[in-house]
Amino acid sequence: MLVHPPDRPTALPAAGANAIGFTLGLIGDEWNLLILRYAMLGVRRYGGWREALPISHAVLTRRLSNLTDMGVFEKAEYGSRRLEYRLTKRGRDLWPVLLSVWAWEAAWVPDHVESLPVMVHRRCGEPFLPVLTCAACAKPVRPRDVHGGFGPSGTWERSVPAATTRRRSTVAGAGMFPQTMTLIGNRWSAAILGASFQGLHRFRDFEQCLGAPPTIVAERLRVFCELGVFEQSPSAERADWLSYHLTEKGRAFFPVVITAIAWGQRWYRAPEGPAMVYTHPACGQDFHPRLRCDGCLVPLRGHEVAVERPPARSRRPSGP
User: Fold this and answer.
1) Residue 223 sits in which domain range?
2) SS3 for 93?
């Protein structure tokens, strides 16, 4: 059984699931994402999650137990033998992923069940949007600005999400981030999206490389096209084949993907080496993501980000 220490990386066994597989197995679960979302907002106690989410006792208990076993939460007693679940160093380190999700939903998804909170940078005191930059040169980056591929432990087979819980396709009534949940709240969705950023375009490639059932691949591609994340076009090889390419909306999801990969590779270490290796040709250095405030351009830190309920007329990012 793997040990997941909350303050240092997990040592993975050779030839097994790599950092990508473990990361997708964790964040590719819609209940995990929702529980983490409220944990980032300060919820620590069982009753707080039960009040905030339409979640059953059995499901919440299993997810909290799993997240604790994975080193994301640690249990602490309060009052008379009552327990609360506190984010560990590993868990707190997920903030860039959640922050990137927040920003993408605000910019690209017009309708939400609840009003999206406003993110305020305590350093400059202003509402902000995170900007993805290169940690080495501080320049903003887009997907085409970064080159990368599989590293020593990176294969399609080893990157398949490591399923640790039973997943559902939707979480009714819990739609703060509805389209993000559609993209990564299902392990095959997350795998197909990640594969598209690595250059896969054809149905057959998704099916063969990921080992996903064809019915699931077809359904996921259909949903991604309906959301405007993928667009269909005739294949260059045969007119009766279709290719699936990321749209501008899909490419804008890159900060979520790259911050999730970076988190995974910090906290899951295969003996062969990293699963993914990226470079930034503009500066010639290895690429590591860093989020900056779009106002003051200072690198963001988790404890310097405040989440506030929007006033009647709040600053909202303009859509595309």
Assistant:
1) 16-308
2) coil
Q: What is the pTM of this model?
A: 0.90
State how many domains the chain has.
1
What is the β-pairing status of strands 147-150 and 276-280? antiparallel
Residues 6+ apart with CB under 8 A from 257: 193, 194, 197
Q: For residue 169, name the pLDDT band (cuts at 50, 70, 90).
A: very low
- Residue 316 maps to a domain: no
Split at pLDDT 50, 70, 90, the class of 198 is very high
Q: What average pLDDT does this structure show over 210-230?
A: 94
For the CA atoms of 90, 139, 181, 110, the dihedral, rounded to the nearest 10 degrees, stands at 140
User: pLDDT value at position 317?
Assistant: 40
State the Cα–Cα distance between residues 314 and 192, nearest whole angstrom. 35
Structural tokens at position 9: 């990386």
Are residues 116 and 105 in contact, defined by beta-carbon separation less than 8 angstroms? yes
